[in-house]
Amino acid sequence: MAANRWVRWLGPFVVLVILVVAFRDQLPFLGDGIRRLRNAEPAGVLVAVIATFLSLAAMAEVMRLLLGAGGTRVSPASATGLTLASNSWSTSLPGGPAFSAVLTYQVQRSWGASRLLCGWFLVLSSAVSTMWLVLIGVSGVFFLGAQVSVWSLLATLAAMTVLSWVVYWAANNPDHLERWTRALLPVFNRMLHRAPDTGLEAVVNQLHQFDTVHLSRGRFAAVSGWSLLNRLFDALALYSCVWAITGTAPGLEATPDHTTVMGVMLAYTTAKLAGTAQVTPGGLGTVEAVIIATLVTAGMTAVDATGVALVYRLVSFALATIVGWVVYFLYFAGRSSRASRGPTIELGHEQNLRTDR
After folding, report:
1. pTM
2. Is pLDDT at 251 greater than 70 in this prediction?
3. Is the pLDDT of residue 272 over 70?
4. Are 290 and 270 in contact (CB under 8 A)?
5. In angstroms, rounded to a whole number, what is the distance separating the alpha carbons of residues 78 and 84?
6. What pLDDT is stored for residue 84 in this prediction?
7. Which of 136, 219, 355, 357 has the smallest set of CB atoms within 10 Å of its CB?
8. Is residue 355 domain-resident?
């Protein structure tokens, strides 16, 4: 048991060392960003830092509300701790979101959440978050007149909206799902030359876990609102970095060598979309290039746009990742599992009680 705890603690540390060595050519942006900070507007940098962590806190509230809908109560401190830790995994590794999802799943299971509830949280929170991201991008396209495939954005928006509605509906209509499963699964089994009732009861039992999930319209609206705040605070961090570098807060009207609010929104959206393909940790190199190119297109000089990208990534990527790893090593690494359900967190005193609905 003690050996397992040491492996849990040292394993991620060794991986981090290997990644730093492997991607050392991508790391000079840290030094460049710090040099840019020396001449940046302190108030703008402070707002960027605060907005970054408020963004993560808003996502933690989404987790807390969705888990609460399934009867698993979690304190804000614990949800925020897991969000910070999982964010550090997501931004530190190539393909990091997959590792982040595993950590999130393990910890949520240790809190008493069912497998279905954990998967339901992951799908619904991702769909709603993507929906808001695309809406922000569509706003930038329409108001800035940028040359971006608006049809692609609208198709993504429609897909995420439909997915959000389907998951919300499924949580409130498990009986309908059972009837459809009993009618359709035997048909698929016959097509696969299997017994008609193969796996039927197992699927039905899983579906009935939705009986424990009660997502009212009010709670869904709250989840959507916090998810929107997560995106807006993150976009505010980029906006504040523009202010910090140029000394002027972007407005609605363009001025020489300055961008607008919509220019910042478009740069934020394109950067997030580029960051989804994490070939390097946190999209190092790719995200910065996209931010710079978009801000230059939106009216900024290349020098200022480069400074904005460096400072934004220093705050939203480097600082948030460092804090997340500190939280991980303090509250997750080396902890023994309970009932093989992963590490626990001791930021709050949780009891897995059903929420009032």
Report:
1. 0.73
2. yes
3. yes
4. yes
5. 10
6. 95
7. 357
8. no
Four-residue CA torsion sign, 108, 109, 114, 120: positive
What is the tally of structural domains in the chain?
1
Please, which residues have CB within 8 angstroms of residue 251's CB and are 6 or more apart in sequence? Answer: 260, 261
Spatial distance between the Cα atoms of 44 and 249, rounded to a whole number of angstroms = 9
Residue 39 has pLDDT above 90, yes or no: no
In angstroms, the first-to-last Cα distance of the chain is: 40
Which candidate, 335, 336, 352, 326, places its Cα nearest to that of 108? 352
Q: How many CA atoms lie within 13 A of 285 on its CB side?
A: 11
- Please tell me what DSSP assigns to residue 260: B
Rounded CA separation 29/230 (Å):
25
State how far the Cα of 307 lies from the Cα of 325, in Å rounded to an integer. 26
pLDDT higher at 343 or 100: 100
Q: Is residue 283 part of a domain?
A: yes
CA 219/CA 36 separation, integer angstroms: 42
Report the alpha-carbon distance of residue 131 to residue 154 in Å, rounded.
10
Q: What is the dihedral of CA 29, 31, 35, 36, to 10 degrees?
A: 20
CA 205, 209, 212, 214 dihedral sign is negative
Determine, yes or no, domain membership for 348.
no
CB 338 within 8 A of CB 101: no
What pLDDT was estimated at residue 355? Answer: 37
Q: Please report, for residues 211, 235, 238, 248, the alpha-carbon distance to residue 39 in angstroms, rounded to integers and kept in the order given.
A: 57, 22, 17, 14
One-letter amino acid of 23: F
Q: Which domain holds residue 286?
A: 2-20+28-146+215-331
Whether 172 is in a domain gets the answer: no
